[in-house]
């Protein structure tokens, strides 16, 4: 028999959302008439913006004619899209980027998962706890995590940055030498953010301590507060130390269409085995062009349409729709005395489970008593125990019905 990659066997249990699906299916089998509302998985529910649909239709028509047909495109993305990204998402905030610093892909999940490949397997990785599980699991697969300590519920070689209500889900700086720091703001799952001054502390730390920040801002479009940075490059010096990940998934309803991008500035450097400087941008370009053949032309045309005046207005409406849901969930939970975080700059509401419940027992209680599916906080890490995530991505009607049901719960 052929030996397998042993590190894959170090992955823990089933992925959070498959366990949720399993419990939901079991409940439905036992209660076939239950009207279950899902505020669990972070998938969008509204249709694509009309400007996107129109652009995609046009692009499909172009595919019919020999003169306008498109085959393989540039692996890094067409310049019509990277130009639009740079002008729309960065120049407006005083940030200049080159087209060769933006890499279009088919999703941030792949990007945040793949990025670790270009770093040494001996790199020390720091993650927030609770954490988007992809950061940890992809480092486990690569052999950077060490063995799993089941008593602590943690991998021995990963540095966990604890986040809790006590620190408002803003972790302290690492106390040991790390090489890669994953930061996710606005945060999934907690829905919390850092201010510019707070993010500056991380950038300064990375500069002083020779580490790289992997900044996942998949939820940037949901920021409503003035002092919250939309890009890490708003912070001076960040180009030397940060890679930024953005996605059209939540911003524009692209979870099924698939399009995202990663920014890797030219100033960002690593070192080879002899200590010589290596361009991270060049390495990522090599990785991307070797393993990826580009996002479809039709999809990229759809993504570029988001930056037109109509597209912009339509995605703002979309974001507003979900953020109204978020406010309703926040207010509803507060009304019944629950402690609630997030939901102001992010479509996630993170609540402290009521007295007597842990994350999974609250999941079961909510499912059986209110027929609502949420996400147990402990699924995102040890520090998530005692918390629970609800998403604002449902329809207005389902969100209203869910809140009415929650208000009637005995907790
Ligand atoms: N990053 C975070 C923090 C997410 O929550 C998600 C999706 O839920 C992703 C990345 C993945 O986004 P995409 O749909 O672009 O793969």
TrEMBL record:
EC identifiers of the protein:
2.6.1.83
Q: Which domain of life is it from?
A: Bacteria
User: What reaction does this enzyme carry out catalytically?
Assistant: (2S,6S)-2,6-diaminopimelate + 2-oxoglutarate = (S)-2,3,4,5-tetrahydrodipicolinate + L-glutamate + H2O + H(+)
What SUPFAM superfamilies does the entry give? PLP-dependent transferases
Q: Name one Pfam family in it.
A: Aminotran_1_2
Q: Where is the Aminotransferase class I/classII large domain?
A: 35-406
Q: What's the name of the protein?
A: LL-diaminopimelate aminotransferase
Q: What is the lineage of its organism?
A: Bacteria, Bacillati, Bacillota, Bacilli, Bacillales
């Amino acid at each position: 028999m052929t030996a397998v990659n042993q590190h894959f066997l170090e992955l823990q249990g089933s992925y959070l959302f498959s366990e949720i699906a399993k419990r939901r299916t079991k409940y439905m089998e036992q209660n076939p008439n239950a009207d279950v509302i899902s505020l669990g998985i972070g998938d969008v529910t509204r249709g694509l913006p009309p400007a996107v649909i129109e652009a995609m239709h046009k692009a499909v028509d172009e595919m019919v004619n020999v003169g306008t047909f498109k085959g393989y495109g540039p692996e890094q993305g067409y310049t019509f899209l990277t130009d639009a990204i740079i002008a729309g998402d960065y120049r407006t905030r005083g940030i200049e980027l080159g087209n060769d610093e933006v890499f279009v892909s088919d999703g941030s999940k792949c990007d945040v998962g793949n990025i670790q490949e270009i770093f040494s397997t001996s790199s020390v990785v720091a993650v927030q706890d609770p954490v988007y599980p992809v950061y940890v699991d992809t480092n486990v697969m690569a052999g950077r995590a060490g063995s799993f300590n089941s008593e602590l519920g943690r991998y021995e070689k990963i540095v966990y940055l604890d986040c809790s209500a006590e620190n408002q889900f803003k972790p302290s700086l690492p106390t040991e030498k790390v090489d890669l720091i994953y930061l996710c703001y606005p945060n999934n799952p907690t829905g919390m953010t850092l201010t510019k001054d707070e993010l500056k502390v991380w950038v300064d730390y990375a500069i002083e301590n020779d580490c790289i920040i992997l900044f996942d801002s998949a939820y940037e479009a949901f920021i409503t507060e003035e002092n919250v940075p939309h890009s890490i490059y708003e912070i001076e010096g960040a180009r030397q130390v940060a890679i930024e990940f953005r996605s059209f998934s939540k911003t524009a309803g692209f979870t099924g269409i698939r399009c995202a991008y990663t920014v890797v500035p030219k100033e960002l450097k690593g070192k080879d085995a002899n200590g010589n400087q290596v361009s991270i941008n060049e390495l990522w370009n090599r990785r991307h062009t070797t393993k990826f053949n580009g996002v479809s032309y039709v999809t990229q045309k759809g993504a570029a349409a988001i930056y037109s005046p109509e597209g912009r207005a339509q995605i703002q409406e979309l974001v507003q729709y979900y953020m109204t849901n978020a406010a309703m969930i926040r207010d509803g939970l507060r009304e019944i005395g629950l402690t609630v975080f997030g939901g102001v700059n992010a479509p996630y509401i993170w609540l402290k489970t009521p007295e007597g419940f842990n994350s999974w027992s609250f999941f079961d209680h909510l499912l059986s008593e209110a027929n609502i599916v949420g996400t147990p906080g402990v699924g995102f890490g040890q520090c998530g125990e005692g918390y629970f995530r609800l998403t604002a991505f449902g329809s207005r009607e389902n969100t209203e019905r869910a809140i009415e049901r929650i208000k009637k719960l005995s907790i």
